[in-house]
Every structure is written in structure tokens, then in C-alpha cells.
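Consider this:
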Amino acid sequence: MLRCHLQANERAKFIVTGHGLGGALAVLFPAVLSLHDETWMLERSEGEYTFGQPGVGDDTFCKFMDKQLKRHNIRYHRFVYCNDMVPRLPYDDPTLMFKHFGTCLYYDSFYKGKIVTEEPNKNYFSPISIIPKTLNAIWELIRSFVIPYTEGPHYKECFVLRMLRLMGLVMAGIPAHSLQDYGNATRLGASDMRLQ
């Protein structure tokens, strides 16, 4: 279908995006196009934007993708919100060898963003980080009640998300993977960074 749309309009461009597993699949799309020598489609790509995407390959794959993205001038930005555990999966150790590539746009729980090579605390399951993550989970629960008053009624969080935030007191990375936080980060924190 994409091929038909691109062939029908020679000026058309496309953007690929996804959240979680969808983000992993989105970033694999240009890899598949590269392997099948679909150069004309790669050159029509405007960019790749993933949210809470897990790692998709090893160091060799990362180097291959960096080369392909530069070759075809494709922007790739990987958004990571605070303690989201999914971008830190699979666990970063010598056995699994999963790595990330591209520009990482990291947002803290105040939706302040910064451009980093890797998200902070990439070895998420470290016992040392339990206390800061729990304190942050408490803040996020409080923020869920306050944010409609500080940012406007369209930021109000639903009952289900507040229940997830309660679960976050036990496992901080669960509610941090919500689309709500990624949406808020891009709306409230966008002015912090200038994307190239």
C-alpha cells in the first residue's frame, strides 16, 4: 500500500513511528528496505520516531543501521520517558548483546528533555536504583492528580492509569510505559530540545 501511494505521488514522503513493540517494528522497517535494496523508498522516508522502544539488535546491526540512516538521510529519534523499563529490555549484558542506536531523547518525570547517547540507568534492574525509582513513582502518582490544574483539563489522567501508577509503587517501570507520559513529554517538553 505504501509503495502504491509513493508511486502515485512523486513528492510524497512518509514517517514511520511506533510505541513499545510497534517502535521496534518501526525501526526494523528501514532495515528490511535496505536488505531488499528498496533505495527509492528509503529516500522518500522523512524519519523514524519511536516511543519506549526495546533494543532490536546487536552492535553489528546498530552500525549497519547507522550507516543506512546516514546514507539515506533518514532522521531517527528514540523517545524514552523516565523509568520506562521497555527501552531497557532486553537487559544489557554480555550474553544478550542488544544495543540501541540513533538519537535518544530522554524525558524525566517533570517532562524535561535532553539528548543523550543512552538512556540513564540502562541496567534497570539494579538494586541500587529501587529507592529513587520508588520516590519517582510517588511523585508520578501525585502528579496524576495535580497535572489537570497545572497544565489544563486535557492532561487529566483516567482511573486505569492512576491504578497503574499505584502499581508503579511496586514496579516503577510499568506506568512509565504509558502513552499518556509519552504524549505529555512531547507536548510539554518539546521546547527543551531542537531536533535536527
About this structure: The CA atoms of residues 81 and 182 lie 6 Å apart. The first helix runs from residue 2 to 8.
